[in-house]
Structure formats: structure tokens, C-alpha cells
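The material for today's practical consists of a large collection of protein records. There is nothing in a record beyond a sequence line and a structure line. As an example, a complete record with its sequence and its C-alpha cells follows:
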Amino acid sequence: MDAIRKQATRLREQVAKQQQAVLKQFYGSSDNIVTDDFELQQHQKLEKLFTSTRTAKHFQRDLVRGVEGYIVTGSKQVEIGTKLSEDSRKYGVDNTCTSGNTLSKAALDYARARSQIEKERGNLLKAFGAQAIEVSRRQQKVREAPGNVDNSLKVEAAESKLLELKSNMSVLGKEAVAAMTAVESQQQRLTLQRLIAMIESERTFHQRVLQILDQLEGEMISERQRIEVSLSPTSVIESGTPPPPSYEEANSIFNSNPVNGLTDSMGYFLAEVIQSYQAETNVELNLSVGDYVVVRKVSSNGWAEGECKGKAGWFPYGYIERRERVLASKIAEVF
């Protein structure tokens, strides 16, 4: 920050000296009197150029100060964001949850995304700092390379000519105006370039942050959908299928009420499992797609009781389909 501030100060002093030298040599002596309309116009033009370059110089100073403050604040944001990323990563690695790792995985994804965002923010701050010192670097380069002709040298040449040729006010006035105009043009162009570069850097930063957040959101939504899909069979059973009937209820129901044309009086029949089912109590039966079940009873509330692979229990009736013909090898698997 001190280096940027010192370079900005040197830049302001140099521009001020150039302006003062031109105006002093052109109007400082008592014998330099405006004699006609043309010289009056030159005088007014120089005054406007002086005001323009001085205002632009102050604007450059304000820009440098603003960038310094932004860098200080942004550096603190990077520090806080990095700490948040590290805390999230630590939680994801430790994985203290006993029922799953969903939140831990989301924490790791967030830590990675936050780290990328803070990296992009750091790049933005570096770009801002580079733009703040670019003008001073150019001036330093000019001082180190005397052979390089620049607008500042044109101003110095105009000053020398003003000292040597005070009698020719018209010619000197034109050269002074041209030199100041060149200084103003360069000042405006360089400042505008710095502003455009800063805007482009900030736009790139926000675009990268948006990409990171979009990716993070997609990963978390995908994880949430995966969890919802894995829990959907249980949730469907809990919300849409009542629990299996008790022994007394089953016997009373099968003696009186038919279900889809099937009652206990129809006897046993074979059915093929078309949807897997995971038992939740010790009275229920685990089913896998392709298994065959001997169905003994069918309840009016959507449950059936039967035997599969030597085990008996209840299961949702909608998870099976009745089969009239079954291979002998499949029948053997039932028992």
C-alpha cells in the first residue's frame, strides 16, 4: 500500500510541475502581455487545459485511494472466507454424523467452492493493485529511458523554447497548447484504460464466482435427489400403504371380504416379485425382484402374507404378480 501511495504522489507532483512550468514560462513574466485575440484564445485554451489536467490528476488520486481501501477490505474478506472454507472442510473430513455422510459431503463441496471463490477474489485484488500503479510505472520507465520520446519530453521541449523565444509569443503559444493538449490526451487515455481494465477484472471475478456457485448448487441438488430416491420406497409405504394387519384382523377379513377377486377361500397361489421390498419389522418379509412367493392370505388393506425362501411374513400385495405357470426349479427356491 505504501508503495502504491508513494508512486501516486510522485505522479501527481510530476504532472503539477509540468503544468506549472508551462504556465509560468508562458505567462509568468510581466512583459508577456496578451496583445490580440489570438493570444487571448491561447491563454483561455491553456487555462482550460490546466483545469482539465488538474481535475484528472485529482481523479487519479481518488482512484488510487479507493483502490487502496478496496484492497484492504477485500483482503479481510479473503481471510474470513478462507477461514470459513477451512472450517467447512474440517467438518466434512471429521464426519461425526452416525446416520450418514450427506452433510459431510455437502460441507466438503462448499469448502472447495468457497476456496475457489476466495482465490478469484485474491486475483481481483491483485488486478486492481496492478492498475493503480501502472501509470507510475510508465512514468518511471520514461525516466529510466531518456531516449524514449513521450509527451512529458514534449512539455520540457516547449518549456525550453519558451525561455529562449519569448519574442515569438504566437509560435510559443501554439507549442504550449499542443504540449498541454498532448498531456491531457495521454492522461485521459491512460486513466480510461485503467478503469476499463478494473471493470473487466471485476466482471471476470463475478462470472467465475457464478460458475462456482452453479456447480456447487448442482452437486447439492443432485445429492438431495439421490437421498430422496433412496428413501422413496419407505416413504411410499409409510404414506400410501397401511401396516400389515394383526393375526386376528387377518383371519376375520379373509373369511368375509374379497380383495381384487382373491380371498382366503381361493387357497394358496404362486406369485413373482416385481418390486423389491425391505422388511421394517420382524413380521414382514424381504422381497427381491424375480423371487417367487407362495401367497397364503391377501388383506383388504393392500398386504399379503406368504412364504419365500423358507421364511414367512407380510409384504405389500402390489409388489407381486400372480403366476399360473412356474418352472419347477423356481418352486424349489420358494421352500
Notes: The two ends are 83 Å apart (CA to CA). The longest strand covers residues 292-298. Residues 138 and 144 are 10 Å apart (CA to CA).
